[in-house]
């Protein structure tokens, strides 16, 4: 029997770690899965998706810059994808409907709580950034019941828009939006969701947000310490994690959605860290 076919679609895609992660999941679980990387033309994402499923493909991961297009293309969305406004996981449901899911937020929360032992319930959390990546993780963070969630962004109106969008999910969490310069007290958890480091920049936030027990999380991953994490460590943070665990955890959640089996993630994270 031939393997079931999965892929990640993006542009560019050659550096994606997803094929490696999913092939490690497949060998670990014994699932008959083949997983490739597809570079879609920037203006032809939809045709790439259609061709993949016409060829019998079972599921797609979607990455930059197509996550919003994947969300729009799908005829059905899971609740977590609906709120995220973007999709990283596509598949046909049993009743034949192209369905969009989003496993990014679950990936972040799982990495923070299970892999790093960080308690989000009751925590005061600062998120830096208000773009697509941040929008995708807010609902799963709120579901853990933090005491406060402050979203700081260069463009304050985008942070304010996210606070309004997620007001219904806030429960007892106190939500606030502001610019980078405003927060001036230590937070329990600080998550960098900006793409500033791609331009060699740092979000210009005060070092006063870092206390001796503050946990730092950069949603980007890097073989070296990320620029943001280095800054935080230089300013007194004791723990700073990058997004490699989130990457593996979101992949594991996609694998579970597609195959009904949750792979073990720590051996895969260790293996990638040693690559
Ligand atoms: P992504 O999908 O990675 O979230 P995005 O939607 O373009 O990409 O969002 C990028 C985020 O990084 C935004 O919060 C952006 O701030 P603005 O909303 O003000 O544009 C932030 N960002 C990008 N470059 C930055 C920089 N040099 N300094 C600070 N913030 C930056």
Automatic annotation (TrEMBL):
Protein name: Shikimate dehydrogenase (NADP(+))
Pfam families, A to Z: SDH_C, Shikimate_DH, Shikimate_dh_N
Top-rank EC class of the record's enzyme: oxidoreductase
Binding site for shikimate: 16-18, 63, 88, 104, 221, 250
Domain annotation Quinate/shikimate 5-dehydrogenase/glutamyl-tRNA reductase: ranges: 119-196
Domain SDH C-terminal positions: 243-273
Organism: Marinobacter salinexigens
Function: Involved in the biosynthesis of the chorismate, which leads to the biosynthesis of aromatic amino acids. Catalyzes the reversible NADPH linked reduction of 3-dehydroshikimate (DHSA) to yield shikimate (SA).
Annotated PANTHER family: BIFUNCTIONAL 3-DEHYDROQUINATE DEHYDRATASE_SHIKIMATE DEHYDROGENASE, CHLOROPLASTIC, SHIKIMATE DEHYDROGENASE
Active site: 67
Record-linked InterPro entries: Aminoacid_DH-like_N_sf (IPR046346), NAD(P)-bd_dom_sf (IPR036291), SDH_C (IPR041121), Shikimate_DH (IPR011342), Shikimate_DH-bd_N (IPR013708), Shikimate_DH_fam (IPR022893), Shikm_DH/Glu-tRNA_Rdtase (IPR006151)
Enzyme nomenclature, EC number: 1.1.1.25
Catalytic activity, as annotated: shikimate + NADP(+) = 3-dehydroshikimate + NADPH + H(+)
Domain of life: Bacteria
Family from the record: Belongs to the shikimate dehydrogenase family.
Keywords from the UniProt entry: Amino-acid biosynthesis, Aromatic amino acid biosynthesis, NADP, Oxidoreductase
